[in-house]
Amino acid sequence: MDICRTKLQQGLTKLSLQIGETRIEALLNFIKLIEKWNQAYNLTAIRNPEEMVSMHILDSLSILPYVIPYRIADIGTGAGLPGIPLAICLPDCFFVLVDSNSKKTRFVQQAALELKLKNVEIVHSRVELFKPQQLFSTLITRAFAEMSQIYKLTSHLLDDQGQLLAMKGQSPDQELKTINIDYKVIPLNVPGINAERCLIQLKRPKDG
Questions:
Q1: pTM for this one?
Q2: Are 16 and 47 in contact (CB under 8 A)?
Q3: Max Cα separation, the chain?
Q4: What pairing do the DSSP bridges indicate for beta strands 158-168 and 120-124?
Q5: Which candidate, 156, 165, 98, places its Cα nearest to that of 138?
Q6: Which residues pair with 158 in a beta bridge?
Q7: Could you tell me the domains of the chain?
Q8: Could you give the CA distance from residue 129 to residue 131 in angstroms, rounded to a whole number?
Q9: CA–CA separation, 53 and 9 (whole Å)
């Protein structure tokens, strides 16, 4: 894990993120958990812990400056990405991690317990069926569909000032032409990842 630690610390510096040693340790422990459970649960195609630093941890944390507190939902969290790394680094925010795959939600539940994350709740549900008692200031997704479809499926979860953050590779210019609300395309430079990354930020219209 020494190589992973060095790579993580260097990456955080490049992202201009100041993360304390306790949280760095938790992020590394999360990688260990993914590596361990991956053998049985097939959580991610990435098997190399050093690659996980860039592809999972730094990729997740690259959107941290754009998260609006204090209630955040990670839709389609999969192996807990980006929700778990963000929850580790934003302990004053409350995260709800939603996924319809029961194997993956079992892993994320166990990870939250082992990492002693008090600010995380796991929900096993399809997003369109998820009806929380309290709405969210930020919804995050590693974009699982076209942008118009993502917004249609998730917008009922946003509070009046809420935003949707969709993590994408290349900017989906054609998809964005079908969106009738304001959006912003934010380029992301993730250390250790040569491929394009961007974040699509959609704000709830003022009239709801």
A1: 0.95
A2: no
A3: 51
A4: unpaired
A5: 165
A6: 136
A7: 2-203 (3.40.50.150)
A8: 6
A9: 10
Q: How far is it, in rounded angstroms, from Cα 58 to Cα 8?
A: 7
Residue that has been written with the tokens 């790579």 in this structure = 7
CA 108 to CA 79: how far, in whole Å? 6
Close Cβ partners of 150 (under 8 Å, ≥ 6 residues apart): 141, 143, 144, 164, 166
| Residue-by-residue DSSP string for the chain | -HHHHHHHHHHHHHTT----HHHHHHHHHHHHHHHHHHHHH---S---HHHHIIIIIIHHHTTGGGPPSSEEEEET-TTTTTHHHHHHH-TTSEEEEEES-HHHHHHHHHHHHHTT-TTEEEEES-GGG---SS-EEEEEEE--S-HHHHHHHHGGGEEEEEEEEEEESS--HHHHTT--S-EEEEEE--TT--S-EEEEEEEPPTT-
pLDDT of residue 178: 84
> How high is the pLDDT of residue 179?
85
Mean pLDDT by runs of 10 across the 208 residues of the chain is 94 97 98 92 89 97 97 96 98 97 95 98 96 96 86 93 94 86 93 94 74
Q: Comparing C-alpha atoms, which of 110, 76, 115 is closest to residue 96?
A: 76
48 burial via Cβ count (<10 Å: 0-12, 13-18, 19+): exposed
Residue given tokens 């304390």 in the structure block = 20
